[in-house]
Each structure stands twice: as C-alpha cells, then as structure tokens.
Amino acid sequence: MWMTPGKNQSWVSEFILLGFSSDPTTNSILFTVFLLIYLSSVMGNGLIIMLICMDTQLHTPMYFFLCILSLLDMCYVTTTMPQMLVHLLAKSQTISFAGCWLQMYVFGALGITECIFFVVMAYDRYVAICHPLRYTVILNWGLCIMLAAGTWFCGFFFSLLHTFFTMSLPYCGPNRVNHYFCEGPSVRSLACMDTHIIEMVDLVMSVFVVVTPICLIVASYIHIVKAILKIKSTQARCKAFSTCASHLTVVTFFYGPATYIYMRPNSSYSPERDKQISLFYNAFTALLNPVVYSLRNKDIKRAFLKVTGHSRVD
C-alpha cells in the first residue's frame, strides 16, 4: 500500500517483513523452534525476577540489577518474537509504517538500555571485589535506583534519535524488508535517497552506546583482575572470578553481534547474515541469561529450592 503526499511522489504506508522462509513446511518447523525459545526465555527470566522478589536474602544491589536485566530481556524478546511467530503461520507479513516505527523504537530503546546497563553491572562487580567492606555504603539503594533509571532514560532517548532519523527518510518503494522485524539498517536500506549522513549519525551514536560502555566495562575488569590477583587464598580467588564469569559471558554474546550490526557501513549490508546475527543477540541472549546466572549461582539455586519446598543446595 502507498500514501501520496504530493503530486509526483508516493510513500509506503506499510512494510512487508520477508522473515526467514517462504516455504510453509519450513515455517512450521521454525514456528515450533522459535516458540520454544521464546517461552523458555520469558519463563526463565520471569522465574529469576520472581525468586529475587520473593527471597529477602536476594535483596541486594547485585540481584536488584540482575532482576532489571531479566526484565529487560523479557521485554526485549517480546518486541520481536510474537510478531515473528504470527508471520510464520499467517499469509500476510505486513506491518504498518507506524507499527514499524514503534517496533524499531522500543526494540532500540531496550537494546541500548541493556548496552548501558551492562556497565552498571560491571561497576557493581568492581565495587564488590575492589571495595568489599564499603559495598553497601557505596552502592546504596538511592544510587542503585538512580543508575537503573539513568540507563532507561539514555536508552529511550538515544533510540528516539535513531528511530526518528531512520523513519524520517523517504520510502517510496520497494517496501519489502528482508528481515523478521523492523531493524534500523534493514529498513534504512530501502530509503530512496542517499543515507550516508544518517549512517554517520548512527555511527556517532554507536560510539556513545556501544564503544564507550565496552571501554568502561574493560576498565572495570582490569581493576577487578588486579584486585583478584592480590588475593592470597586460591579458593577465594576462584570464587571472585566465578562471580564475574556470568557477567562477562553475557556481555560477550550481546556486544559481539550488536557491534557488528550497528557499527559497520551500509555497503556491507547482508540481509541473510544480518537476520541470523540479530536473532542470536535478540532471542538467544535472552535465553542464555537465565541459564548462565542460575546454573552458576548458588543463591539463585537456594532460592528456587526454598520456593519449591526444599531447604538446601548440595
């Protein structure tokens, strides 16, 4: 469908999301697989939120931040997966221009928020290991709430800029987006004008929301490693490394694909590869988080056993 703002110009009023395949049998298989991934992600992260809220022993800054990360992941995967599941079975894969605008904005806002939030979690580990005796004094609840609120504000602000610049481009056809959701680079490739300036704006924003957080996380862990190496007890040293391993694992799997998608030139755009990479950092990272944090965390295990009627973790 098209809307005509002027006498000699037409703009698209909706986009067609091509998804992964046009074969019904393949789509049925993908539907089952992605439904299981989505439900597992939502239930896994939901379980972590429930356990942290119910167990008073988990009411600490570290688990407060973990609770917010799980909430982010639940919302993040829900912005794309349900629609993709519907499109896998439906005959129509269209999304309105306004719907695309909204999906791009919310997806970007949650993604950027998570990017910045990983810095907060790294700072939490830095304070816990480098200044253990002052941990609760430095990371008081007032500061924790301010840090969390600040990351959400930055995420929604930067995403607004990204979405506004991308969706303000003229789209006069074609309107077939070779993706399973309205991701910025995929939609921008359909613009009927040179997008070089918009790419540069996106690159500058990426420095603030991707490169800067990565640098801060690396700086935090350099101090953390120095502090851990000074610990004389091997058991205490291993325990300190273990508390950071979960965070580093999730950070690596999230930042790697996201950096590739948003910090490479539009000329190297590859639809099929980008869809797979986006699926990884969107769906699989959200699924990975509860697995990593629960399997490696005795406090989460203890809280789960307590809720289910058991009293100890072996």
Description:
This protein is mainly α and 314 residues long. 72% of the residues lie in helices and 6% in strands. It contains 11 helices and 5 strands. The chain has helices at 24-54, 61-78, 81-89, 97-130, 135-138, 141-167, 184-188, 196-229, 234-262, 271-295, 298-307, and strands spanning 2-6, 9-12, 14-17, 94-96, 176-177. A 3-stranded mixed beta sheet has the order 4-3-5. It has a two-stranded antiparallel sheet with strand order 1-2. A hairpin with a 2-residue loop joins strand 1 and strand 2. The longest helix is centred in the middle third of the chain and has 34 residues, at 97-130. The protein starts with a strand and ends in a 7-residue tail after the last helix. The model is unreliable at 2-9 (pLDDT under 50). This is Olfactory receptor 2A12-like. Residues 44-293 form the G-protein coupled receptors family 1 profile domain.
- Beta-strand proportion: 5-15%
Shape label? globular
Task: Give average pLDDT, whole number.
Answer: 85
List the strand order in the largest sheet: 4-3-5
Rg (CA only)? 22 Å
Main sheet specs: 3 strands, mixed
Query: Which structural class matches the secondary elements?
Result: mainly alpha
Distance between the termini: 61 Å
Helix content: over 70%
Low-confidence stretches: 2-9
Number of helices: 11
- Report the count of strand segments: 5
Strand and helix order: EEEHHHEHHHEHHHHH
